[in-house]
Amino acid sequence: MDRLKLYAIPQGIAKSQDFKIRLRTRGGEWQEVEAYSVRIEMHHVSKASAVHFDFSGGVECEITSLRCNVETVDIRPASKKIHYRRKENTITFFLMEPAKLSIEINGDRFHNLHLMAGEAKLFLNSLKDDKKRIYLAGGKLKKPEEAWALTAENEAPEDVISMEGVAIHDPAELSEQLKRLGKGAVLYFGAGLHYIKGSIFDIPSHVQIQLDGGAFVMGSFRITNEQYVSIGGRGVIYLGYLKKDSYLRGVEVNNCAHVLVEGVTILSPTHNIIHLGSVYDIVIEDVRGFSHMGWSVGINMMACENVLIKDVFVRSSDDCITVYGRRYEYLGDSGNVQVKDCVLWADVAHPTNIGIHGDSGNGGNTIENVLFENIDILEHHEPQDDYLGCLCINAGDGNTIRNVTYKNIRVEQFERGKLLDIQVKWNKRYNPIPGNWIEHIQFENIHYTGSGEITSEIRGYDETRKVVDVRFKDLYVRGKHIIKPEEGNIHIGEYAEDIVFE
Asked: Where does the pLDDT of residue 129 fall: very low under 50, low under 70, confident under 90, or very high at 90 and above?
C-alpha cells in the first residue's frame, strides 16, 4: 500500500521561496510541501533548498522553479537515472524507492533543491512505555518578523529576539530526569521549534533521543564518556543561529561505545556535522547533513574503531568523511571503518580523506581495514595544490595506512582537484613529521565521468616511507577502461612499488 508522510516546518525557520513542491501517491491527491533554506559553500555562502518526506510504495514528485525559467534540468546522482517530464517550468518524476537527490535548474548547484525521500517507518521505540518516556511539545516563534535572527549568527537567540512561543528546555534538568528513569529512557521532541538553553545537551547512557519529523531542535547533542545512546527520528538539528567561534557540532561523541545516530538532518553546525573522538562501535545511518562554515567537516573521526556509516547524504564546506588516528586528546589507532551507500558533496576540500593526522610524538598510528563502497561523489573543490583528491590517502604524522578498499565508486564532474591522491607525505601545515607507510590499497569498479582534473598522484616519501601494493581493477575514466596510469591521468612518483592496473 502506498503511503506518504509529510512534515510541517515550524514558524521561525527560514523557508525557501525558490520552488513549489507537490507530492502524491499513485492515484492519490496532490499535497503541497514546503522546503526550508539551507546555507552552503563557505567561500560564497549561498541559500539552497531542502525538503524531506517519507513514503512507501511509490510517489510522484512535481517541482516548479519559481526562481528562474527552466532551460535545463539535472537530477543527481546521475547513477539514480531519474527520468522526468517537463512542461514549461515544472518537472514531474516518480520514485519507487528512497533517494537523496539534487535537483539543479540550468546547471545551478548553489540554489538547487535537495530532495530527501526516505522510507516510511517507525524510528526506534516510538511506542515505548510512557513511564520511561518524556514527551516535549514543540512551539513556534510568535513574531515571525524576527525569524531572521535565527540565521544571523548570534551568541544566543534570546539575546536578540523574543523567544515567546518556542519550547525552551533546560538540558541539566532533562538529563537528571532521564537518569532517574534509568535504562531505556526515551526523550521525544515533538513537532515544532525547540531551543536548548546554552545550545548543548549532554546525553546520559542508556537513553534514546527521538526527533519528530516536524521538530527543529536548536542545539547540539553531545555524548561524552557514555554508552548505549541513540539519536534518531526525522527531525532537524539546527545550529545556524550561532557564531562560528562557538565551534559546536550537530552531534558530538567523545570516548563512548555503542552509539546509533539515525534518520536526522543536521543544518549549519559551527564546526563538524558529526564529530567522533575515541569512539568504539557506532552506526550512523540515513543522516542528512549540510554545512557552510570553515572546518565544517561532515563526519570527522579520530582514533575510532568499528564504525559503520550507511546511506548518508553529506554536503559540507570541508571534508565529507575523514578517518584519522590521534588528534587533540583522542588517543589510539583507527580501524574497521565501513562507509556504504552514500552521497558525498564537498563544496570545499575532500569527499574522502584518510590519514593526515596521527600521534606524531609517539611514532604515529595505524589506520587499517577501511572500506568505501557504493558511493556517489557530486563535488570536490580544494584550493590547496598539495592537498587534493576525491579518494585521498595522505599518510602524515608517522602514520601507517593499510588495507583500504574503494569499491563501486562513481565520481561526477567536480570543480577543482584530483580523482585520487595516494601519498606518504609531509604537509608542513598539518604535520610535524612525515607519514610512515601505505600498503594494500584496492580500487575496484571506479567510474569518473568528469574532465579537467589535476593529475592524480601515487608517491612515497623516501626509501623507508613507501607506497606499496596498489591495485586497480575496472577503473574507467571518461568511459575508457584504464590499464595504464597515463591513460587515467595518473602519475606514479618515486618510492611507489607494485602498482597494478587490470
From this structure: low
Whether this prediction's pTM lies above 0.90 is answered by yes
Residues 6+ apart with CB under 8 A from 160: 149, 152, 154
CATH 2.60.350.10 is the classification of domain 3-119: yes
pLDDT tens per residue, range 245-264: 899 999 999 999 999 999 99
How many angstroms separate the CA atoms of 91 and 73, rounded? Answer: 9
Residue 487, phi-psi category: left (phi > 0), alpha (psi -120 to 50), beta (remainder): alpha
* H or E element in which residue 173 lies: helix 171-181
- Inter-residue contact 406 to 367 (CB < 8 Å): no
Q: CA neighbours within 13 Å on the CB side: how many for 207?
A: 23
Helix or strand (DSSP H, E) at 267: strand 265-267
Grid coordinates representing 495?
618510492
Chain segment 224-237, per-residue pLDDT in tens: 999 999 999 999 99
Using CA atoms, how far residue 470 sits from 33, 44, 492, in Å, is 48, 37, 11
Q: Which of 319, 229, 326 is nearest to 283 (CA)?
A: 229
The DSSP call for residue 234 is S
Contacts of 492 (CB under 8 A, 6+ apart): 458, 459, 485, 499
Assign domain 136-450 one CATH number from 2.160.20.10, 3.90.1570.10, 3.40.50.150, 3.30.420.40: 2.160.20.10
Taking the C-alpha atoms of residue 445 and residue 406, their distance in angstroms, rounded to an integer, is 8
How many CB atoms are located within 10 Å of the residue 176 CB? 12
